[in-house]
Amino acid sequence: MRKKVLTLIVVGVCSLGLIGCGKRKDINVEPSTATTGVSQSGIQSELVKFVSEDLARLNVKRQQAVEIYNEYFASNTKDADSTDWVKKLTDEAIPKYDEYISDLKALKYDSKEVNDLRDKYVRSAELQRDAINQIVNSITNNDDSYVEKAKKDIEDSKVALKEYEDSLKLLCQQNQITINGSFQMDNFTASPSDAK
Hints:
Strand 2 (177-180) and strand 3 form a beta hairpin. Helix 2 (42-76) packs antiparallel against helix 3. The chain has 5 helices and 3 strands. It starts with a helix and ends with a strand. It is elongated and about 55 Å long. The chain is mostly helical and 196 residues long. It has helices at 2-18, 42-76, 82-106, 112-141, 145-174, and strands at residues 27-29, 177-180, 188-192.
């Protein structure tokens, strides 16, 4: 049973590591030279703050939590002690992820659109955190059904992240913000433009 759970956990680790949220520290939104000196709209400036400043700043806690989640298997796949790993997840990773989510929820903006965008982002993060909790439950209770729940949470998180990305793209388009690059690439930049 332990070997089967650990094999499934490795699959979960890979899935969690591939979720695009990990890229957010590289996202940068800034005014383009074409609009320098032109007053930004409220939504435009809030998008710049949300994507370039707030998410980048908060991503540090998420990265720390995910690194704890991933590091255990990077060095100990065959000799993994599930009790030690559960303790590290419970004492370090999950609290860091909870802080990260709490900080995300505390971000407030004047525009409903940016607050809605933040909420979609929060939903994806909550589902990732739930997946980590399910893995802890699986090991603690010696029950594979929790691994299936973790996989579902990861898949649902990917769907929520896609909704966030689609909404961000639309909001950027509606507010003359040009997105350079791809959401799946390490370097993603966006900036207000003079495009109509």
